[in-house]
Amino acid sequence: MRLFRKAIHYFVFGNFLIAFSSVGLTHLSQLGKELTTGDLHLLVFVFFSTLLVYNLNLIEGMKGLKSSAFRSVRHNWIVKHEKFIWAFSFLSLIVSVAELTALKEDTLIFLLVPGLFALGYAVPIKLPGMKTIRLRELPFVKIFLVAWVWATFTVGLPLVQQSGMQELLTTDNFLLFFSRTVFIFAITIPFDIRDLAYDSDKHIATIPSRFGIEKSKYISLFLLFIFIASSFVRCNFGFCNLYEFCALVTSALVSAVLVVMVNSQRKELFYSLGIEGTMIIQWTVVLLSTLL
Fold first, then answer.
1. For the chain, what percent of residues have pLDDT higher than 70?
2. Residue 20, Cβ neighbours under 10 Å: how many?
3. What is the pTM of this model?
């Protein structure tokens, strides 16, 4: 049991779960289209670039964690396994750069802006008239940035890699991008609730710090309703079949149940495994729907 718990901590706190989640959502955007070798290279790139960005975020926040009075189980694990995080960050950088050579020119051009924003989320940058700061530390910016970058990576990148930038302009893919953004936004709010004490200590303004925990949960549930509504529109226009729509609704309902369960007493793995796992759940149930 102890060995299993240790393995879970490495998988979740080491950001492997979030990296697999990004692959899952990217693969959902590829469903129904013939995959090429380049598309498979894209999935490898998405996995390791996600791992790199999230690990860089851990490394940059390491000094703050060591001196923080609000260290959780996850924070203690991060501080204890600093060398492990550095090692996989270096490996992720090498693989990500290598995989870039297998991607199309349009994909590389499209990747430039969200890639810079993703790095700006993790590492400090100098903004005009401001001190050196990570984008995630700007008031209320973190959650919008996370939702947009995730949708861009998991919807935009595979579409551009498969069919070029013109593919982004279709109604189907616009609705897919919108619904993915809303879903990520909804499941990110619980993480801001989890980090409320830490963010407040660092004077980072978030939705929970502004509206409180309960109202933040209502916002998350409302966004999940919007996700279901946008999925219904996609189904109504024939952009997805009834089985896929039901699968998306199922994933949203599971997410809603977990959001309702959020409170200040929940253990770290409830968020890092449960809430993050909703992306894997969505990937799984949609894949199963394709077999019907």
1. 93
2. 19
3. 0.92
